[in-house]
Amino acid sequence: MSNLQNRFDPHAPDPRTVALHGRESPQRRPAGQPLVTPIVQSTTYAQGEVGGECAHAYSRVSNPTIDELESTLGALESAPPAVAFSSGLAAEFALMLALVKAGDHIVFGGSLYGGTVRLAQQILAPLGVESTFVDATRPERVAEAITAGTRLIFVESPANPTLELTDIAAVSAVARRAGGLLGREIPLAVDNTFHTAVIQRPLDLGADVSVYATTKHIDGHSSALGGAVVTRNEALLTRLRFVRKATGGIQTPFNGWLTLQGIRTLPLRIREHSRNALEAARWLSGRPEVSRVIYPGLEMFGQRELAERQHLCSSGGERLHGGVIAFDLKGGVPAAKRLLASVRLCVLVEHVGAAHTLLTHPATMTHADVPREQRERVGVTDGLIRLSVGLEDPRDVIADLGRAIEASSAIEVTTEGSPAGLQTKQVIGTREVRPCAVTR
Ligand SMILES: *Cc1c(COP(=O)(O)O)cnc(C)c1O
Predict the structure, then answer these.
(1) 3-state secondary structure string, the chain?
(2) Which of 117, 216, 367 to mutate to test the pocket of ligand 1 (most atoms within 8 A of CB)?
(3) Among 8, 22, 73, 190, which residue has the fewest nearby CB atoms (within 10 Å)?
(4) What is the pLDDT of residues 19-68, one digit of tens each?
(5) Using a 6 Å cutoff on CB, does residue 213 contact ligand 1?
């Protein structure tokens, strides 16, 4: 069976196949066609005749490499070709330019990527677009915030970096009800960067738009910035392409090509990230120095029921919750700083969703431009650490974290305090040889 949770179309092809072939129903390739999409590194294209129609005229408008990227991104969500941009924020900004003008209003979920908050407060507000930030984990708060001028609802689930989930189906119902009263649609956009279509299909849950920083999991190799908007609304697609042509945020052919190469293995990587993160989250939650672990795959996760309902399964039937974990140390900011200074394998960076395991200190990095009071209200405390678990052997990641946590903490650690199967000794010690049969 293909993707187990695709309730809307149980016969939809598995994302592993779509990611490789770029379409839901692949056609036989013409003889001699390259297997890997070529990079068309040309700014412009010969035209047949004055005023004639041609597939491509100028690469700010469209490009054959970007066409392939866009059809693949769309196919992953059973949608028409996406609109690709040079970065995630370029995609977000184009979406907003396509939908709002001075005097309009946007309702944002309260927990968002810091750059999205900066875009709203420091770019859109001076242009006359008003924003309200609400706790989107409570759909009634979204309903209360909608005004006669609301033209867009924008949420992120899981939210960065606190991993709060928004019930996309419930917020979509709110948007439809309010739109019915106002006599026009209020589009719901979901920033699906953390999960990608492999774990979460916002359009199937009633959202109108999925927005991506392809920079993260979709490229996955930390080599290409990029963004995309996916929607099944043809009028909005046309408008987005016009905004892109008019403002110039299209993805470059080379970055588009790198992103395509990343997409080919996206479903496999997401499954592995999810497995590795679950292992690391379980280990962290057994550590005495750690005061809080947030990961949707843990039993203790506050929105467990929603996580099980909203997140998809792999074809093997395991529920996927992504590679990102957030945790707090009992020792607060000083301990967090010591941990971040002590890791060797995990890398301290402003990034997430990569093949390498990454650590971020949101308060001083991704969310440095978000006002402290707003940041703390959504749980981005000074001591919070974001861990993006990569594709290494998770035992090596855990060993590195174990070493760094011990270096960072004044608390005495006892071997008995560790969870079953992951004794501190094993974590720190040398690796024993295991036969294949017992690997995961
Ligand atoms: C990184 C990120 C963005 C912005 O993407 P860029 O490519 O860096 O502009 C937007 N949303 C989320 C959730 C992100 O993680």
Answers:
(1) CCCCCCCCCCCCCCHHHHHHHCCCCCCCCCCCCCCCCCCCCCCECCCCCCCCCCCCCECCCCCHHHHHHHHHHHHCCCCCCCEEECCHHHHHHHHHHHHCCCCCEEEEECCCCHHHHHHHHHHHHHHCCEEEEECCCCHHHHHHHCCCCEEEEEEECCCCCCCCCCCHHHHHHHHHHHHHHHCCCCCEEEECCCCHHHHCCHHHHCCCEEEEECCCCCCCCCCCCCEEEEECCHHHHHHHHHHHHHHCCECCHHHHHHHHHHHCCHHHHHHHHHHHHHHHHHHHHCCCCEEEEECCCCCCCCCHHHHHHHCCECCCCCECCCCEEEEEECCHHHHHHHHHHHCCCCEECCCCCCCCCEEECCCCCCCCCCCHHHHHHCCCCCCEEEEECCCCCHHHHHHHHHHHHHHHCCCCCCHHHCCCCCCHHHHHCCCCCCCHHHCC
(2) 216
(3) 8
(4) 999 988 888 989 999 999 999 999 999 998 888 889 999 999 999 999 99
(5) yes
Q: What's the predicted TM-score (pTM) here?
A: 0.90
Question: 308 CA distance to ligand 1 centroid (A)?
Answer: 25
> Does the CB atom of residue 249 touch ligand 1 within 6 A?
no
Cα(291) to ligand 1 centroid in Å equals 28
How far does residue 380's CA lie from ligand 1's centre (Å)?
A: 17
Tell whether ligand 1 has an atom less than 6 A from the beta carbon of residue 37: no
Mean pLDDT of 388-405: 97
